[in-house]
Amino acid sequence: MLTKAQPDEMQSYLVDASNMAGGHAARVVWPESAAEVATLLLDASETCTPVTVAGAGTGIVGGRVPFGGIVLATDKLNHIGEIVKAADGGRAVVEAGVTLAEFRRAVEARGLFYPPDPTEWSCYMGGTVATNASGARTFKYGPTRRYVQRLKIALATGDVLDLKRGVIHADKNGRFSIPLARGRSIEAQLPTYHMPQTRKHVAGYFVAPEMDALDLFIGSEGTLGVITEIETSLLLKPAGVLSGVVFFKDEADLLAFVRAARELSLRTRADGRDDDVDARALEYFDDESLKFLRTHEPRVPVGAQGAIFFEQETTAETEEKLLTAWLALLEAHRALLDDSWFATDEKDQTRLREFRHQLPVLVNEWLTRHGQRKVSTDMAVPDDAFAGMLRFYQDTLRASRLQYVIFGHIGDNHVHVNILPRDDKEAAQARAIYGQFIERAVQLGGTISAEHGVGKLKRAYLRALYGGEHLRQMAALKHAFDPAGILGRGNIFSEELL
Q: What domains are there in the chain, each with its CATH number?
């Protein structure tokens, strides 16, 4: 097992995309098997040495930033196992250190499709499971959880679990008994909170009546065990995709269009049809976002107050009918059709995806010029609360006179508000406003984190969602799997709760 302890050799493993400062560790280790991970964790438990799991570093909540102890890098757990195709889909086995991009290429070469679609494809598969990653396609396909069928997990006790979906469930009182080697078992009690009724939610441990034990580890952010191997289900690769970037002069028309597209899509799925509107992605850009994008793409119409990016899968038989259905829906909601863009071939679709992903790049360039960091939200709310939440975002920010953009996964009532301070005074103002947004989202029955997780940066806000007693219940659940409290210290909840 490779180990490095020189500062210059470790530096890239002491940070992640959150830019959280102060990370430090005694050494970085690179295990090459689940057995090596388990041995390392047992030794760390016996010496009470903190262990921080390091994936690709694409997370933005400080989850892999260590504050002492050992960094366990998963880079060498990088093998793709068997990929099996069947008439209705398939399955694949992959180690935790394989990138999502590598996995997608291998799967698509077999005519298969892995739906989870986080923006950053350089992330590791283990990290996507540990954070229950989602993205634009979650509106149709759901998050990573839906596709995980088996996990191999190294525990802090030195045990290796090979856990398959459907084998172990919580009882009606929320208790688990998970067998280990040599006749031992883990006895654990689920927290008693109820999760927000949102389509996307990754704040704290997953809880559901008589839930599958596998779901405990999905979204647990490296605090219960180290995922080393994943078995996923796969779908057949879609024959084609229709996509578009559609502009609106009036935001009320845009929001009405989104509601109609969502309702039609859900109805089409419920009816089992493939020849009517069924969006797999509905993405939003507000007027401030379009101002940024116009500097990169002058074709953005000047009068537009917002835009929607959409995707729908097609076949040769349905493509023309589906395009007609989308155009009719857009015309009914007064979209600026003459100024909008549509694509059915790969070249044009690539241009639309590049347009969609250009906004974060432009925002980061702006922040670099001002020497500041954005303050970015990740809240989601129930369907009936979204329009009011969006107005609250807009009214608050316009009154503050801060620079901002709002964009993201409107199909799931989950948009990212990026507040862009120009100096330190505005940065403090932005953080105070972020707290107001958290409070309002919780009041509306929403979540403080829909896709990025809690990590270290957002753990204080978890108390606003669940309260102190439920945080203590979460800590007790962690203690059942990690008695010495070594894994992911500082992630999800503060160390004093352990």
A: 2-73 (3.30.43.10), 80-236 (3.30.465.10), 240-443 (3.30.70.2190)
Nearest-Å Rg of the Cα atoms of the chain is 23
Question: pLDDT tens-digit profile of 402-420?
Answer: 999 999 999 999 999 999 9
Q: Which amino acid appears at position 134 of this protein?
A: S
Phi and psi, residue 28, nearest 5°: -115, 135
pTM above 0.85?
Answer: yes
**Rounded to the nearest 10 degrees, what angle do helices 287-294 and 346-370 cross at?**
90
Query: Angle at Cα 94 formed by Cα 283 and Cα 65, nearest 5°?
Result: 65
Asked if 148 and 129 touch (Cβ cutoff 8 Å), the reply is yes
Measuring CA to CA, which residue among 477, 483, 496 is closest to residue 45?
A: 483
Question: For residues 197 and 352, what is the distance between their CA atoms, to the nearest angstrom?
Answer: 32
Distance between CA atoms of 46 and 24, rounded to whole angstroms? 21
Pairing of strands 80-86, 112-113: unpaired
Let me know: does 79 contact 49? Beta carbons within 8 Å: no
User: What type of residue is 122?
Assistant: S
* Separation CA 335–CA 342 (nearest Å): 13
Average pLDDT over residues 301-327: 96
CA distance 27 to 66: 11
Contact 489, 227 (CB under 8 A): no
The rounded distance, in Å, linking the Cα atoms of 241 and 310 is 10
